[in-house]
Design goal:
Elements (H helix, E strand, L loop, with lengths): L12 H32 L3 H17 L1 H10 L5 H14 L7 H27 L6 H30 L9 H11 L2 H17 L8 H32 L4 H29 L1 H15 L9 H15 L2 H11 L4 H18 L1 H11 L1 H8 L2 H10 L6
Helix pairs in contact: 1-2, 1-4, 1-5, 1-6, 1-7, 2-5, 2-14, 3-5, 3-14, 4-5, 4-7, 5-6, 5-14, 6-10, 6-13, 9-10, 9-13, 9-14, 9-16, 9-17, 10-11, 10-12, 11-12, 11-13, 11-17, 13-14, 15-16
Length: about 400
């Protein structure tokens, strides 16, 4: 299967860092919502079901809708989705302390989620234009901003609410305003890159015709990876707080260690993938995740932090790689490719955590964690079947 690459150009680190900062800011808002749910539940006297519905609405708007934004982004260049998406994400979340009615909260959550959904496909497509010949390495600069933002969001939101009060939450909009100020200085370069690239994508038209099965397998692989990641983030706290009766702060540190390992893995993995090949690296990362993940239940003490950092590094290291693979498989539809990988596939994987909850209710939390251990193995099998050239 032939895949045509777009004409090479040098990496533009300055533009990538600005786009990465916007990614960080947008995902701060996405990551902050789960941490704010207990405060919203108390403020509005909500049931657990209604509180959960807020998160479901956010997931639908921010993840499942991304391919839709990607589709419209590919039809015509829409650079404005970057500043407007980040601003909508910030305004929607920052105003959650204002309404006293559940319906208005849902509306704000949807606005914030749609802002997240608008930023990601256009952001990954635009970043693709500035990566140079080392696609995964350049894209990792953009991706790592989102990983950091997702990890920082809960800490920032909790600090503001506990130290200053829930009514001070609107100050969080400052992050999106700062990005708008920085983005203004790169507007000309980004518009020029968008004008130059459509013709190159048309020349690569034949490349994506036989890519649908490899793309489907890549999406399925990402679903299992996301399912594993979200499952560990969800059930490690339950395991150490509810099952082992441990310190909640301890479990929080474990999850943070896992996510920070993923941040390091995103950068290191992308460099290795550009050197040794995208598919070979994806396979190797899933081999490592399949072997190492069961150790989470086997070790205790300081070694548990080491294991979680390495598991996070191995599992999440292919995050950027799979996005680049999808973009190369669909060179004419960079927005759709990005939306499918970052939004749809990861969103569906996250929804799979509900099934793990059923397992936990029926057989216990340890069994749910053991079920998670199977998922990287399934992902490994799917990745081996992907037809993708070096």
């Amino acid at each position: 299967m032939a895949i045509l690459d777009l004409p090479e150009r040098k990496m533009n680190l300055k533009v990538l860092l600005v786009l990465s900062f916007g990614h960080l800011v947008t995902d701060i808002y996405q990551g902050a919502l789960p941490a704010l749910l207990p405060f919203l539940k108390t403020r509005l006297s909500l049931s657990y079901a209604l509180a959960g519905a807020i998160l479901m609405a956010a997931t639908f708007a921010s993840s499942i809708m991304q391919p839709v934004f990607g589709y419209f982004s590919d039809k015509r260049e829409k650079v404005l989705l970057l500043p407007l998406g980040c601003l909508a994400a910030g305004v929607g979340l920052s105003l959650l302390s204002a309404p006293n009615r559940y319906g208005f909260v849902l509306m704000l959550v949807m606005i914030s989620g749609l802002g997240v959904a608008a930023y990601h496909p256009e952001g990954y497509k635009t970043a693709h234009y500035f990566t140079g010949k080392n696609l995964a390495t350049g894209m990792s600069v953009f991706s790592v901003g989102g990983n950091l933002g997702f990890a920082l969001g809960p800490m920032i939101a909790i600090t503001i609410v506990t130290q200053l009060g829930f009514e001070v939450l609107p100050v969080m909009v400052i992050f999106s305003l700062l990005f708008l100020a920085l983005f203004r200085f790169q507007w000309t370069a980004i518009q020029r890159a968008h004008r130059e690239r459509p013709q190159a994508r048309e020349e690569a038209a034949a490349a994506g015709r036989n890519a649908y099965l490899p793309l489907f397998l890549t999406i399925a692989t990402v679903v299992t990876r996301s399912w594993t990641q979200m499952g560990l983030m969800t059930f490690i706290p339950f395991y150490y707080i509810d099952y082992l009766k441990g310190d909640p702060m301890y479990s929080g540190k474990l999850v943070s260690t896992f996510l920070l390992g993923g941040v390091a893995g995103t950068i290191i993995g992308s460099i290795l993938a550009d050197r040794f090949g995208h598919k070979p690296f994806l396979v190797c990362s899933l081999v490592a995740a399949s072997v190492l993940t069961p150790l989470i239940l086997a070790v205790r003490g300081p070694w548990l932090f080491v294991v979680l950092a390495v598991v996070g590094m191995a599992l999440i290291s292919s995050f950027t790689v799979t996005i680049v693979m999808a973009q190369r498989l669909l060179p004419r539809n960079l927005g759709i490719a990005s939306g499918l990988m970052v939004g749809f596939a990861i969103g569906v994987g996250g929804l799979g955590v509900t099934l793990l909850g059923v397992v936990a209710d029926s057989f216990g939390i340890p069994m749910a964690l053991k079920a998670i251990m199977i998922l990287p193995v399934i992902g490994l099998g799917l990745s081996l079947a992907i037809r993708y050239p070096r």
